[in-house]
Amino acid sequence: MTDRTSNIVASLDIVEEKRLLDLSQEIGDSVFAIKINWPTILACGKQIISKLGKYSRIICDLKIADVPNTVNLIMKQIETEKPYAVITHLFTGEDSLKTLMDNEGGIRVIGVASMSNSGAKKYLNPNYASLIKDANSAGCYGIVGPGNDYKLLSEMSKIKGNMKIFCPGIGAQGGNYRGAMNSGGDYMIIGRSIYENPSPLKYILNLEKS
Ligand code: BMP
């Protein structure tokens, strides 16, 4: 695993296992982490988490949103695969979040405090401050904030405390790597712009120089 400093999280939403493993081997050392989401886990099975763990830290984007008992059952399933972190929704409240924090694998928890899609502006994003407060009190490692909404991102960064802000919405969703960093984002989650790029590694290295 890399000691190289990178703040890029490659969101490899790929459903063909061989392609995913090959690309992870190619870029795993050059990014902070690889994030996988439901499409990959449904297509390849949960063991893909530990298989990819050979190449990078793995962030499991499950966006968990359930009652504590179910949250616990989900965590038991992924604890065996030893991901670096898991992404959860925060709106389900303190009891569900506490169950996540108590997981036995020492898995870090990243909470969704706002989203990058326009629909999130109606219900979720107006509540970012309360969600961040809950995440902070629970001891979350990080929060998700939109890398394509610099105004919201800078508001979030003022109240994030010690948590890291993970920013999707870069590239395909209109956000800019530098713009999101200058607005207080810590880690840039980038999917299609990496895995649809003809030269993903070159793209990553150039981005950091941009
Ligand atoms: P892309 O760069 O291809 O748009 O991928 C972004 C990734 O981040 C996807 O896995 C998506 O599910 C996730 N994501 C997002 O786009 N916006 C959010 O607010 C939260 C996310 O987890």
* Distinct bound molecules: 6-hydroxyuridine-5'-phosphate
The number of helical elements comes to: 10
Derived from helix and strand composition plus strand pairing, the structural class reads alpha/beta
Shape: globular
Oligomer: single chain
* pLDDT < 50 stretches: none
Task: Give the DSSP E fraction (strand runs of 2 or more residues).
Answer: 15-25%
CATH architecture: Alpha-Beta Barrel
Radius of gyration: 16 Å
Nearest-integer average pLDDT? 96
Sheet of most strands:
8 strands, parallel, barrel
CATH topology: TIM Barrel
Considering DSSP H and I runs of 4 or more, what fraction of the residues is helical? Answer: 25-40%
Q: Please, how many domains?
A: 1
The order of strands across the largest sheet is: 1-2-3-4-5-6-7-8
- Just give the CATH class: Alpha Beta
Task: Write up this protein.
By secondary structure, the protein is of the alpha/beta class. The chain has a single domain (8-209), classed as Alpha-Beta Barrel (TIM Barrel). It has 10 helices and 8 strands. α6 links the parallel β5 (108-112) and β6. α4 (68-79) runs parallel beside α5 (94-101). The model has no long low-confidence stretch (mean pLDDT 96). It binds 6-hydroxyuridine-5'-phosphate. 6-hydroxyuridine-5'-phosphate is lined by residues 11, 13, 37, 61, 115-116, 144, 146, 168-169, 171-173, 189-192.
